[in-house]
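Re: weekly structure request thread

Next one in the queue (634 aa):
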Amino acid sequence: MKRLSLILCAILAVSVISGCGDVVVQKEASRRASTGESWTIMMYMCGSTLEENDGIAGEVLRSLPCDLPQNVNVLVETGGCRDWSIDDVDNEYPQYYIVQKNGLRLANQVSPASMGESSTLSNFIKWSAESYPADHYMAIIWDHGGGPLGGVAYDSNYGYDSLSVRELRSAFGSSGIYMDLIVFDASLTATIDMAAAVSMYADYMVASEGVMPMSGWDYEDLFCTVSDNPNSTGLQIGQEMCIAAAEKASEKEAELMSLAVVDLSKETMLSLAFDGVAQTLADATGTAMTLGTLRTALSGLEPIGANTQWEGYSNIADIGELTSALEGDFGSPVTNLKNALSEAVVCKYTGKVRSGMGGLGFWYPFHRDGAEIAKYRDISGSARYIEYLEKTAIDVDVPERAADLGSSGAFLEYMTAAETNTISAAADIEGRLVMAASRPELITSAYVNIYKYDPKESKYIFLCSDHNTAYDEAAGGYVYSFDGKLSMMGRTNVTMYPVSRGAMYDIYSVPVMFDGEPVNIRVLKYAEEDGKYCYNIIGIWKGNDPFMGTPDRTLTRLKTGDVITPLYEVFGENRYVEGRRVRIGFGGIKLEERKIPDGEYALSFVAEDIYGIKKESNTASLTVSGGSIHITTN
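Done, posted below.
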């Protein structure tokens, strides 16, 4: 029955899109007979730049018409956009539509207001419930998402004002309507802070932990699922939504997905368990040794979303990976959090790249910013976690910092030792590069930066960071053996910025110029059975929006005839240069490791200490001539 309904809905949707009728209609359509318990589904559609730049919100609106039964009502509020691709949708006034089989019928128009205001959402919920009372309610918020700091639904008409975590709590609380499901069609929304904000107002939350693909949820499938099975629980509907979204997304997008259905009745126990681990984190600042152990464990966390200077920084990590990283050294609080997470996340879909994730993220400053830490202080429900963040952010100014750095034993030890801590790199007799540190107990990890001399610029340009280093006690420091290969696109060196390093896959970002703007090529690196490293180009991704700070929802495939120009950071200078243009041929283009071309290169070690502060060593010269490689230091 469900598949038959899907076919009928698809036929109706095609008829609307192909011009057999307008998207917005005036005539009320007849409804088919009721199928059981009643549902009112409320879609809060903030068009924003997704509509202005790509017309995506309009595409979604065109796909919504469906032959719904009398017991299922779907209502849509439009707004937040300066230029709708559908003429009848107003650019200034928020409008309420009801979904019918022949199109969308305008039911109400309200005074101009920001969709980033809690009252705008609350008023829509109240109007929907009063006009179409039901046994069950579902709210869907559609647009960009910016994580706990950014919120969701960015209104272009009001300076990209968005619904903060607090405003979401206020909107659902003041509406007086309890939801079966609260759904986010937006990125970075499956976080512990978002779940805490809405936990008192719904049974389940359905959201994306990472970047939500532009394809979003499958609304045709959702409407038919509810229509054919109106007695379904929120959990059952949420499960079907995750499955359908993964099937709808492209193969590349599905690989990176991390969708979750969260039982909000379990959120309180989850937050308490997280607070317990936060106490462990704060306690670890007691000595330099315990903080070093902690920082080494946390170095395995994978950043979700953007994580380079070109892409921006989303600063989201996964709670499941947090428990895995800490499980061996930090005892029962970690076990409690692991169990609470499995109780709260009752369903998840993770693509193969995200297979180790637990479904819910938390704010973690991979890239520290004092103002952001201060902002998160007003969002987080864990004072202990804020204490940890403030005690470890010693290299940035945190406004109104509450934590006393002088009470941290690790800080006092560090400040004494850091004054005399130096690092230096030198070539040994075996042709390896060795990094020595005067205070090695402060170092938690080290990697090597590789630069190439550019005769045109008379400067060195950055190529990549190689984390294939190891501490060798006999050598007296971290050791690096260059394997003679670099990553190349065709026969052109490209810059490889590491985004995340996972158990099975590493993600890299390659900055390039494409269609006149700087973008990033996302790349997967993985090892095959023979141990050979392979690269899989995922697509072009813009990273975070410079105004909103939200991650781009589109992955663009490179196609024949496309032209890209690699970008390179100039060593020691705050600028970049463009490389040689690369045209994509009929066979596509590959990224692979090739033998390093002849030329002059430079290597340097970068050491990361117990506070995550990085220090770069002196450079060593790497000369390649006729296939022979020589490393020398001054």
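The two ends are 77 Å apart (CA to CA). DSSP finds 17 helices and 35 strands in the chain.
Next request, please.
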